[in-house]
């Protein structure tokens, strides 16, 4: 596997981790109160990182699909 594939595989988990960190760092009492009221508890950078993680997820989906096709049943 070449370096570009490793880099592509690292993108989605990295963005997911950054989304989690930015969500936790922004967890002030007002944000927690809004999330209890039914509003989204995240926005801004957290939402951007979560979307970037989703955009990079197809690389993982292709990898898992290729492995399941290669395994005998």
Could you please describe the fold and organization of this structure?
The chain contains 4 helices and no strands. The protein is mostly helical and 73 residues long. It has one domain (11-70). It is elongated, with a radius of gyration of 17 Å. The two termini are 25 Å apart. The mean pLDDT is 76.
Order of helices and strands: HHHH
Q: How much beta, percentage-wise?
A: under 5%
The gyration radius over C-alpha positions equals: 17 Å
Number of domains: 1
Q: Into which percent range does the helicity of residues fall?
A: over 70%
- Annotation, overall tally of beta strands: 0
Mean pLDDT: 76
Straight-line distance between termini: 25 Å
The poorly predicted ranges are: none
**So what's the oligomer here?**
single chain
Notable characteristics:
73 residues, elongated, mainly alpha
Short structural summary:
This protein is 75% helix and 0% strand. It contains 4 helices and no strands.
What is the topological layout?
Elements: H1 3-25, H2 29-36, H3 45-55, H4 58-70
Helix pairs in contact: 1-3
